[in-house]
Specification:
six-stranded mixed sheet; 10 helices
Amino acid sequence: MTVTAAQGFTAAGIAAGIKENGNPDLALVVNNGPRLAAAGVFTSNRVKAAPVQWSEQVLRGGAVSAVVLNSGGANACTGPKGFQDTHATAEKVAEALGGEHNAGEVAVASTGLIGVLLPMDKLLPGVGTAVAALSADGGEAAAVAIKTTDTVHKTAAVTRDGWTVGGMAKGAGMLAPGLATMLVVVTTDADLDSATLDRALRSATRSTFDRVDSDGCMSTNDTVLLLASGASGQVPAYEDFAEAVRTVCDDLARQLVGDAEGASKDIRIEVVGAASEDDAVEVGRSIARNNLLKCAIHGEDPNWGRVLSAIGTTGAAFDPDRLNVAINGVWVCKNGSVGEDRDLVSMKDREVRITADLCSGGESAVIWTNDLTAEYVHENSAYSS
């Protein structure tokens, strides 16, 4: 159920000493081929971490033989030294793997506190340890090693007719587009080229990771990679492959929301009746980022007025007197005014479903978010310690 579910991949997760608590903090995923096709999607934040800058260059070549990921430090906003450290990490991986490997085909990803240089005296020797631990069963250990504030590791996989797509993710805070604060590696043993992977990955992230909006904060390190080994020898139809990639990405995205820092509610916001998909997404994001609403949901208060006020801040096409809002299936707002009795709404379950009908067209979109809790504030006030 992880990155080694697909044939042709090995992985490892070890404790290199990057984290002071001694927990696993270094992961390695290796594509053993015969194909080394790859695609990637990265943060749209203009402040990009050194590993993002490096990996964007690597992906331009269309081939990735290995991905090395560390937790315990983001290596973001670390200047030229940080980029040199990223380069040195890729060089070390290529050297430790030997053979035909070269640094230009090694992607690097990091997660943790911004503005702190990585302890290279621990990370580089750890690469050798990770290489020695590589295994076809190492996917779960790799997923554990990339956790930061995550309470659980996150993996997913689907198998179709003779080929598989598997993946792992980390992320629990700073979850907002583009992408979320996440490191994600998805693998497949389908025999497809980089252009096909890129098309499928961008389509999948657009409707999964890009629509997770936990706290409105965009990371410097977001990285989503899709690697193909071709080891199955199968060449699936594009539509079948894209559906499988989206299924894995959607599973991982939901796990991110379910593990969001301090959250007690998972909130599914569906905007329907929009004039365009862009309008639906804009409205969904506005609702998802309304802290008053998120607090109300934490208190199990179906305060639909806060939904309407969020809709009203957008540029979407709608008539205020035609807006409808349902919370957990009860249409508490009809035609921009009082609808069914709000006391009919039960909010005891973990998942809360909000439907906003703009009555302006036939387009729709779903955004996932979570409630705002005292635990979230506490965790993020003490994060650097």
